[in-house]
Write a structure and sequence with these properties.
Layout lengths: L3 H22 L1 H21 L1 H7 L1 E9 L4 E8 L2 H22 L6 H20 L3 H22 L4 H30 L4 H8 L4 H19 L8 H7 L2 H21 L1 H5 L6 H28 L3 H20 L5 H32 L15 H14 L6 H17 L4 H28 L13 H19 L2 H12 L7
Antiparallel strand pairs: 1-2
Length: 496
């Protein structure tokens, strides 16, 4: 008997040939089918929310490769369920936005088919507990993204796509080596079974496995100094793909960090000195990335590059939050920030795409006075910017507040974190400066371009969907925070 998670995983795969063939007749039909598929998958995940809220997790398991003890085990808990729901929300918005944004482009049936394949990789990555499936899905995310950036990107698109692929694929190699070592030590690919066995493994080898996974995932997150692929990929990809890259694909690296190094390996290392040194390094890398991204974003005039460097900064927030392990507030804030940043930054990239489509420029110095001509886009951009700036009543405020609260709580134990958390507060002020500068230059002042129209209906619908989500997460974070707390208290991710 197959369950909801299985159908959520397999439905995009089954629909991909139909999406491609339908696109040969009409691209709108391709987009419509993909939108329906993404909404169906979203509904499957929403159906399991009550079960996860009550029991802490929902699991389905299917036999796969019995010779190597690998099974298709699909699960959601208080961590993965809200993340995958936001994934499908962003995906639906990106597809709707693409209808008008990509209109007139070449080979669009291929574009929507590649989006479908990307959906498969993302869903599988977030809902599997089998490390082999986890790796396959991680690789499966890279190829569709490479071809989409290369074929439908802007300047030097294939060069940018190749840079993206080489960096992120290089990051996958240590992850694969780490998975191989875990299987060698435990005889299983199942995350939860491996966690109970690894504690009896050689400590020196566990440290190397920890470093391998960490290196791979920080490349995926675009953390300084292995961030070089990120600004070009985000800036040159089509706006809907930039929204997915920033809102979901980079977040996958943070999710991987949480799910494997922090949930499986670190608890198995008994040397507390190694724990402390590891967390110190993550803290320094997190603060460095957050500061670097914010300062460079403040100096940019390219609309998409501001958003790209802002993403580097917020990945720094998330890595810093992880370094507060196992402080409950810090961990809850970090997981929640994966969600709030995904929605807020996805919205910013969509509004950037709408602005670029109407003005034919990415230079914010060439804009100005657009608020009167694009009022809906202005409101959506304001919501995104206020959230990224950490303004109360918008999504990122709660998550950033919890991270900072966790930092000061950790500082009461170790004064090192008083200093780093104080720096993060300064970085939050810089974040407010660059988004307010962006908003002011684009929407206020004298118009430099005349005759600008509001974004099309489909673009407006997608922006409205994410705008409402950003506000809801800001004023009513309770249900998601409760899910995350449930996961922590029931030790599903081994934090308490």
């Amino acid at each position: 008997m197959y369950g909801l998670l299985f159908f959520a995983f397999i439905l995009p795969l089954l629909s991909s040939p139909m999406i491609y063939l339908a696109g040969k007749r009409s691209v709108k039909i391709s987009a419509a089918i993909l939108s329906i598929v993404s909404l169906l998958v979203l509904s499957f995940f929403l159906f399991v929310v009550p079960k996860v809220s009550y029991e802490g997790k929902y699991v389905e398991s299917y036999s796969w490769i019995s010779n190597i003890n690998s099974s298709l085990t699909l699960f959601v808990d208080g961590v993965s369920l809200p993340i995958v729901i936001v994934t499908m929300l962003l995906f639906t918005s990106a597809v709707l936005f693409s209808v008008d944004y990509m209109r007139g482009g070449h080979a669009l049936p291929g574009y929507y088919t590649l989006l479908t394949l990307l959906m498969i990789g993302l869903i599988g990555f977030f809902i599997t507990s089998d490390l082999l499936v986890f790796y396959f899905c991680l690789e499966f995310m890279l190829l569709p993204t490479f071809f989409i950036i290369g074929e439908w990107g802007y300047r030097n698109s294939y060069r940018t796509a190749l840079k993206f692929f080489l960096f992120t694929h290089a990051g996958v190699i240590p992850i694969l080596l780490g998975i191989g070592c875990i299987f060698m030590l435990t005889g299983t690919f199942d995350m939860f079974q491996a966690r109970s066995i690894l504690a009896h493994s050689p400590q020196s080898l566990l440290v190397w496995i920890l470093l391998a996974f960490t290196l791979g995932f920080i490349v995926k997150m675009g953390i300084v100094p292995v961030h070089m692929w990120l600004p070009d990929a985000y800036a040159e990809a089509p706006a809907p793909i930039s929204a997915l890259l920033s809102g979901i694909i980079t977040e996958a690296g943070a999710y991987g960090m949480l799910r494997i190094p922090f949930s499986i390996i670190l608890p198995s290392i008994t040397n507390l000195q190694i724990h402390s040194e590891f967390l110190y390094v993550l803290s320094i890398l997190g603060v460095t990335s957050a500061f670097y991204g914010a300062i460079v974003a403040l100096a940019q005039n390219d609309l998409k590059r501001i958003a790209a460097y802002s993403s580097i900064s917020h990945m720094g927030y998330i890595l810093y939050g992880l370094s507060l392990f196992p402080i409950a507030e810090g961990m809850v804030g970090t997981i929640f920030h994966m969600i709030t940043h995904g929605v807020s930054k996805g919205l910013l990239f969509l509004t950037a795409g709408a602005i670029m489509r109407r003005t034919n420029t990415r230079n914010i110095g060439m804009m100005g006075g657009l608020a009167s001509m694009m009022p809906l886009t202005a409101i959506s951009t304001a919501i995104s910017c206020f959230s990224i700036a950490g303004i109360p009543a918008f999504a990122c405020f709660i998550s950033e507040f919890l991270i900072l609260l966790g930092g000061f709580e950790d500082g009461a134990i170790n004064s090192f974190y008083y200093g780093t958390t104080s720096l993060m507060i300064v970085i939050t002020v810089i974040s407010a400066a660059y988004v307010l500068r962006l908003f002011g230059k684009v929407f206020f002042g004298s118009p430099k371009i005349q005759g600008i129209r509001e974004a099309s209906i489909m673009m407006a619908v997608s922006m409205l969907l994410l705008s409402i989500s950003t506000v809801i997460l800001g004023v009513w974070p309770g249900p998601i925070v409760k899910l995350i707390n449930t996961a922590i208290k029931m030790e599903i991710i081994n934090i308490c």
